[in-house]
Amino acid sequence: MKTKISFFLPFFQIFALIAFALGFSASAYATLCSSSGQYSSYEWIDGIQIGSYSHASGSNNGYADFTTTQIIPLESGENNLTLTPGFSYGSYPEYWSIWIDLNQDDIVDDSELVFSGSSSSAVNGTMTIPATALPGKTIMRVAMKYDSSSTPCETFIWGEVEDYTVDIPAGSLPEPPTPTLYTLNVDNNYILSRSGNIGEVAVWVIEKDGAIVLQRNAANELTYKYFNNTAGSKFRVWLSENGQQASNIVEYEAGKPVSTHEISVDENFRVTRDGTLDEPLTWVFEKDGVVVLQRNAANELDYTYFNNVNNVYYRVWLERFIDGAYEIVSNVVYYVPGAVTNPPPEPPVPTLYTINVDNSYVLSRTGELGDSVTWQIEKNGVIVLSRNASFDMTYKYYSNTAGSQFRVWLAVGGQQASNIVEYEVGSVVSTHELTVDANYMISRSGTLNEPLTWVIEKDGVDVLQKNAANELSYTYFSNVNNSYYRVWLEQFVNGAYEVVSNVVYYVPGVAVNPYIITLANNYDLTRDGNIGDPVSWVIEENGAEILEQDASNGLIYNYPGLISGSNYRAWLVQTVNSQKTVVSNVLEFTPGPSFGTYSLSIDPTYRLYRTGSIGDSLTWVIEKNGTIVLQRNAANELDYLYYSNTKGSSFRVWLEQVSGYGYYRVSNIIEYDVQ
User: How many whole angstroms separate alpha carbon 282 and alpha carbon 294?
Assistant: First the structure.
């Protein structure tokens, strides 16, 4: 979506031209949307270099307009660049984005992103000017944001934005033709096959999630299957000769079938497929989300559904029985008989996001940072966690109890917005507790003679595996200042080493606990230090991490979701060398029966009642048969009757309140079955 501020457009355009001619410091692009960092005292854009041009800018309090004083000549095609951050204290992870108004419409557009990268030091890379860019002078926006990427018209907390004018030359390079010396194909088993002959000087090139992971000689094979097709990863494969692409590119996502057939639909709703007769294929027709026909397609290359109904939404695809299950092996076409538009409108997206889970129970999602989504985690049929997912693309639930069944999905506005992934946790759980002191000595719980192993990781690489059976504490002999260390315990279980402890972190040269936090009688958490310190509160409830909340803007925080009788732990974390590390003591507390939460009750007609007052910022949350079906504002009502109490269904109801990054439960849970 394009964003633009354009009040009284002619006046501003005239003003911009006059300002440019007279040398005023006003922007040459007066209608451009605004973007800046609110605080640049800790990090800022120190300088940029593009090709032979360089500019040292230093800190400019969050925003600098160089559009009338700095004009950067660009090259057609690729431009080498270096982006340098400035820091007042230690370095932090910074995310860089560059946009250029390529069509010169005075709008900075998401689609006009020409470079992105991240680092806690200078970033080197290449910025490509596409052939479609209009020649001449236009705006370039450079943004540097702490800990996550920005959008082109965003005002964020930490970092800085700078605007420049760039000069794009005429005659950008045309797109190269796609080489076709070879033809590649991939089947549903991810077996790659190529044209050509044995003995040809060709190389398989395999790209996984955007990074090349394998280059393998293809001279002696016409087929190949990559050995590490990790579920959920996206792959691109091609052949190269002498370092140059020499085939088409095939793409697939591991864990999903590969579409091997193409189908189309005409104006009479006749569906036609490619391929040949006698292939073991099945037509599948879906009507308004419900499959209404599965028909053998082996003996026909086209088919018209016999019972089309006007203004009803149809989807059609091909399936094939593979390895004991039916798999989709075609694209999906859709049509709406009697629709006013032609072609019919795009279908409603049943799942806005896709999530996956790996063997370590790490969840990953599609989409972008900043998306207004929530992780919903159900354990043995009961939702146990609703966690804001806006600020993470991956998450691991910290209470994966052995033997429990889990279902996880994403929600938007209380409604399911992704597929559901399911997993059952194995028998090995964390059975030991590790701690680290100010001298980086690691101590473990348990007794001597347990068959345990210390594992020490330095900057992401294992540097030590040491027998821990005969010692309850250990200090690594080769700590290096400013390196990032992670330590845990492993045990040999059922033929493999399993992690059986929590993970502790430390950075030599950085105090283990530079901050002290305290707890008041009203459960206010108070930290020392200063406003602006780049630290975050972490709250753990009954062993599960439920909140990470920015602590830079205040010294006191009260978590609104505290539940009487639950066990809590709280601490501060800080990002050091691109890794989050604990930087405070850990407080443990259990709110007593007198803790002031809201109370819910229910009468025989299933009408719900709450304590509190009109105007309290609360939300009713209603779960039906394990799925959240309603989130309703409760501020203006002290009672509520759910409109769809279906007989035979089981319901759970509670109140939530928004605070910080998400919604948190602030009441007891009412459960009832409708008879």
Answer: 6
